[in-house]
C-alpha cells in the first residue's frame, strides 16, 4: 500500500444529508436545512451584483495574492495587508497551518469535542493529538495548559466553540497565553466572530501585538453567508504569515470568491441585521429549554446545542418533517442536537416540532 498509513483511520468529511436527498427519501417538498450553521438569510444583495462584472474573465486565473480583497479586509480590521493569509475556506487555512507546522514527533492540543478539522489534519501530518474534554461545555484552559510540553506546536481554541457555542473570555485567554511557551502557536478560530456579542468576548486583534505566537482565523462562510464561495483567512504577524504564503497553492481562492467577499464586506448593515435576528432566535430557544428544563449551552454563535434526548432519535424525528439539524452523536455529544438559528419562522417551526418530541417523552415517563 502506497498510502500514508494515517489515512486508513480517517474518513471523508460527512456533511450530513443534502436537501435533495431528504426530498427524495421522504417525498417532501419543503426542506429547511439548519445543520451547517449557514446564514438563513443568505448573503448581502450586493454580492450577486458584484459577480456580474466577472463574466468576461472565466478563462483567466484569479489574482493569487488577492490584492484588492487583502486591501479591503486589512482596512476593515485595521491591520496591515501583509498580516493576512486567504484560503479556500477556513478549512484550507487550517490545513495550511497543520501542513506547515505539524509533523511526526510533534503534538497538538485541542478541546473535545471541537471543530473536527484540527484533529483531522494533525492525524494526516502524523502529529500526536491531545484532546482535552470540555468543562461545562467550555474549553478547560487549565487542563489544556497542563498538556502542553516542548513538542506542542499548535493549540487550537475554537471561540466560540463548535458544537457548543460557548466562549473563552478576555481574562481567561490572557491568563492562558501567559502560560503558553512562545514555541507553541495558539490558533484562535473565530469562525463565528460576527455573532459573538458578549462584553468580555476577546478582541484578539488588539491582543495580537502582545503575543508573537498567536494567529486569528475568520471566515466569510458563516455570518457573511458565502459558504459556497470558500473564503476564509488568518490574521497574524507579517513575518509568520509570509512563511505560510510560501506554502500556499498559487491560485487557492477564485476570482468569484474574492469579488463576493469584497462586496459582502462592504455591507455591514446586512451583518448587523443577521446578528440581531440571531440573538432573538437564540432567546426563543433558551425560553423553550427553560420551559422544559432542558440543558443547553448559552451560545455566542449562530447555533445552539440542546440536550433534548437521544440525538439520533430527535434528529430523525425532525428529518421526517423536513427539518435537517445535526445529531450530537456525530459531534461527540450523543444526548442532544445542534440546531443552526434560522429565520423567525423556521425557529418557531422547529420549536413546535421539539414541543411534540418533549411531550412524547414526558408521556413515557
Ligand atoms: C464552519 C467552520 C470552519 C470552516 O469554515 P469555512 O470557512 O467554510 O471552511 C472553521 N472553523 C469552525 C469552528 C467552523 O465552524
From TrEMBL:
Kindly report, in one word, the top-level EC class recorded for this enzyme.
transferase
List, alphabetically, the Gene3D superfamilies matched. Answer: Aspartate Aminotransferase, domain 1, Type I PLP-dependent aspartate aminotransferase-like (Major domain)
Q: Which reaction does it catalyse?
A: L-histidinol phosphate + 2-oxoglutarate = 3-(imidazol-4-yl)-2-oxopropyl phosphate + L-glutamate
Which pathway does this polypeptide act in?
Answer: Amino-acid biosynthesis; L-histidine biosynthesis; L-histidine from 5-phospho-alpha-D-ribose 1-diphosphate: step 7/9
| Cofactor names | pyridoxal 5'-phosphate
Q: Which Pfam families does UniProt cross-reference here?
A: Aminotran_1_2 (PF00155)
N6-(pyridoxal phosphate)lysine modification sites are 222
Which EC number applies?
2.6.1.9
Q: Which residue ranges does the record assign to the Aminotransferase class I/classII large domain?
A: 30-352
Family annotation (SUPFAM superfamilies)? PLP-dependent transferases
| GO MF term (any one) | histidinol-phosphate transaminase activity
Keywords carried by this UniProt record: Amino-acid biosynthesis, Aminotransferase, Histidine biosynthesis, Pyridoxal phosphate, Transferase
What the entry lists under PANTHER family is as follows:
HISTIDINOL-PHOSPHATE AMINOTRANSFERASE, HISTIDINOL-PHOSPHATE AMINOTRANSFERASE 2
Describe its assembly: Homodimer.
Q: Which family does it belong to?
A: Belongs to the class-II pyridoxal-phosphate-dependent aminotransferase family. Histidinol-phosphate aminotransferase subfamily.
Q: This chain belongs to which protein, by name?
A: Histidinol-phosphate aminotransferase
Which gene holds the coding sequence for this protein?
hisC
Amino acid at each position: 500500500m502506497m498510502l500514508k498509513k494515517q489515512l486508513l483511520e480517517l474518513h471523508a468529511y460527512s456533511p450530513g444529508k443534502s436537501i435533495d436527498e431528504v426530498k427524495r427519501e421522504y417525498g417532501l417538498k419543503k426542506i429547511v436545512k439548519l445543520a451547517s450553521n449557514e446564514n438563513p438569510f443568505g448573503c448581502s444583495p450586493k454580492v450577486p451584483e458584484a459577480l456580474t462584472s466577472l463574466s468576461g474573465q472565466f478563462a483567466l486565473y484569479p489574482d493569487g495574492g488577492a490584492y484588492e480583497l487583502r486591501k479591503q479586509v486589512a482596512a476593515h480590521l485595521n491591520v496591515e495587508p501583509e498580516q493576512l493569509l486567504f484560503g479556500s475556506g477556513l478549512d484550507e487555512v487550517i490545513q495550511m497551518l497543520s501542513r506547515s507546522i505539524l509533523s511526526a514527533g510533534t503534538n497538538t492540543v485541542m478541546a473535545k469535542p471541537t471543530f473536527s478539522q484540527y484533529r483531522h489534519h494533525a492525524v494526516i501530518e502524523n502529529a500526536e493529538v491531545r484532546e482535552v474534554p470540555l468543562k461545562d461545555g467550555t474549553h478547560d484552559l487549565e487542563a489544556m495548559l497542563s498538556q502542553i510540553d516542548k513538542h506542542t506546536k499548535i493549540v487550537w481554541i475554537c471561540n466560540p466553540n463548535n458544537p457548543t457555542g460557548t466562549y473563552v473570555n478576555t481574562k481567561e485567554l490572557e491568563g492562558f497565553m501567559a502560560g503558553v511557551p512562545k514555541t507553541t502557536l495558539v490558533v484562535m478560530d473565530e469562525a463565528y466572530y460576527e455573532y459573538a456579542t458578549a462584553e468580555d468576548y476577546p478582541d484578539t486583534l488588539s491582543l495580537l501585538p502582545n503575543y508573537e505566537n498567536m494567529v486569528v482565523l475568520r471566515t466569510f462562510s458563516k455570518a457573511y453567508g458565502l459558504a459556497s464561495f470558500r473564503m476564509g483567512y488568518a490574521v497574524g504577524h507579517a513575518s509568520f504569515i509570509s512563511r505560510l504564503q510560501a506554502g500556499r497553492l498559487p491560485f487557492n481562492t477564485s476570482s468569484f470568491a474574492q469579488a463576493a467577499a469584497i462586496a459582502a464586506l462592504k455591507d455591514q448593515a446586512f451583518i448587523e441585521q443577521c446578528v440581531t435576528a440571531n440573538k432573538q432566535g437564540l432567546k426563543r430557544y433558551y425560553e423553550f429549554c427553560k420551559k422544559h428544563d432542558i440543558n443547553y449551552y448559552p451560545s455566542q454563535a449562530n447555533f445552539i446545542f440542546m440536550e433534548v434526548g437521544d440525538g439520533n432519535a430527535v434528529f430523525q424525528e425532525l428529518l421526517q418533517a423536513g427539518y435537517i439539524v445535526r445529531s450530537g452523536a456525530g459531534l461527540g455529544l450523543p444526548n442532544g442536537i445542534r440546531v443552526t438559528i434560522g429565520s423567525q419562522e423556521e425557529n418557531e417551526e422547529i420549536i413546535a416540532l421539539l414541543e411534540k418530541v418533549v411531550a412524547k417523552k414526558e408521556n413515557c415517563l
